[in-house]
Amino acid sequence: MYAIIRAGGKQAKVHSGDVIEIERVKSDAEELTFAPLLVVDDKGNAVSDRDVLAKASVTAKVLGESQGPKIDIFKYKNKSGNRRRQGHRQKYTRIEITGIELPGATKAKTTAAKATAAKTSAAKPAAEKATAAKPTAAKAPAPKAGAKTSAAKTTKAKGDTSEEE
What we know:
Layout: E1 2-7, E2 10-15, E3 19-23, E4 31-34, E5 36-40, E6 46-47, H1 50-55, E7 57-77, E8 82-101, H2 105-133, H3 151-155
Antiparallel strand pairs: 1-2, 1-5, 3-8, 4-7, 5-6, 7-8
């Protein structure tokens, strides 16, 4: 099971047990909770219904803070002596995803799956009857374009104008 969460204006695809870095969270809490934007279960069923996702949660444990790489900014204008130097180092919070909870989605999915199965099982016999009624004819391979199809054409000379075809 995995989920798509939004943290710090960015989205991340997370599994249970993943360790990721998000933009710095100014909180002393040891555990964070995120509302997922999308959840995909082990069977591959995607849940994007807002009502169901409002009850879902992704919990994470805060591991600590770190800093990203140093970014050097140097602005220069020719012939004027104008030079400006600046730097930046982004701060991140390291978190470990401890769990993805999706209550109520399994019941909704199973009832929807049963309804879909009932519709497809009712539609299958009608489709099978329609295909059984049609006779199947063996198709002959189509001749290739530019290929000569009869022996008369192959024996015909260039000057011969008689129509034997």
